[in-house]
Amino acid sequence: MEPCPVFIGGRWFTPDGLPTSPVHNPSTGEVIAECPLGDAALVNAAVQAASDAFPVWSETPPIERARIFFRYRQLIETNFDKLCKLVSREHGKTLSEARGDVYRGMENVEYACGAPTLLMGDTLENLARRVDCETVLQPLGVCAGITPFNFPVMVPMWMFPLALVCGNTFVLKPSEKVPLSAVLLIELLQEAGLPEGVLNLVHGGRESVDTLLTHPTVRAISFVGSSPVAKYIHETGTKHGKRVQANGGAKNYIVIMPDADMPKSIEALATAAFGCAGERCMAGSTAITVGAAADKMLPSLTEAAKAIRVGRTDIEQQPDMGALISAAHRDRVVSLIDGGADQGAKVLCDGRGVKVDGAPNGFYVGATIVDQVASEMTIAQEEIFGPVLNVMRTDKLDEAIELANRSAYGNGAAIFTQSGHAAREFKHRVKAGMVGVNVGVPATVAMFPFTGWDASFYGDLHIQGKEGVQFYTQQKVITSRWFGSEVEDVWRK
Ligand code: NAD
Question: How confident is the model at residue 488, as a pLDDT?
Fold first, then answer.
């Protein structure tokens, strides 16, 4: 069993007497660690440590704070393979997908290294005669991050590097399903020279989250997870006077026009739907075909899906797709496919009951394509978060856009076409915050905000980019006038 310690005030320890939750290797179903579920006392201690560290850290020059993150970036690169293997082992995604997770996380560290520039304010001389005005960005205080299971490195890295370079201190509460990657991430940051108490790690579920949401010292909460929890986090956090950014779930639509470059579109669609076994908030989980696109695309897409090899990701010989996070999640995905079939949809490629040699207890579902899905079916409404592509058929682009816009979510949407007009209509009219044109997964990278809409985001300032800097700082506007007789005389002349 691997240790799963917390990190509070610069000290690693495994708390005594707390209930635990098993961490699995999804490839085999084996339990690899026990995650301690933090209670109020543990979380209070972490917030206190962060609060104690704030006065010195917030006065540390931004360039010095950034220097720690330059070293951190180097350490991530040196430990890249180790991090990827750990992500793969506790999450189940393939090594190549884990590399994407770590790489995207590292880009957020690179962005945060620009702190001295990112934190610059504006000035205007002579706002009125001899009156100057300047803005400065100051940190908030103690911030907290609560993260989901599906990107064990990237999502925590959306939060703490930027929060810290902005001068805040931080408490991270990663998913109890994948806590080990967070442990390694913080060990590396400690090695990079982060002072004690600046970043603290607690584990747990609802009790630990509620303690952060209601703690009077915590000034801001960043959350990523499912929509019902995101809504709850936003409501509870704001009620307790905190700034909150809460990313929720998604249901993303990919429109395929009949004039699309079919081979390239099919390849991109398969990656969007089945990459990371569909456990991505930007997964292209529904293809909306227009006119003849369905018949042009489906035979090759079905063939491609059937060729996807599912298997263990914790061994050298890598498959194309790994396991889902848990047995319960696998069963939910299977029951949603069952429900779609019962309600009249047609399963063209069926990943239910897939078997992997030597891993009878792994949490597997193979690539699945469900055709002729109608909007009233449960499978069309709920986020599946598995390797399942719904296909909905329409006759016209207008109808496709209208169908996509009926969704309660608004994370991502994409169109595959060679028509500038169709692309322009789609990108202008579709109700989603991240839009792709011939790009299946238009997830934004570190320099841009992650702009979910509707039930995919609760809050005002999004995660990442300049909005991320705004979220983790408060602006002060200073208006100054200095009296001096010589200057006064010049003015009077
Ligand atoms: P989840 O909502 O179950 O858990 C997320 C975090 O919230 C975890 O740390 C968990 O411990 C905590 N949590 C769970 N239930 C809670 C409750 N009742 N009260 C307080 N805290 C609670 O999400 P998950 O299953 O870990 O992750 C998958 C979900 O995350 C999917 O819906 C996916 O779309 C979403 N997601 C969204 C984005 C985005 O940027 N929009 C990115 C990644 C994942």
Answer: 60
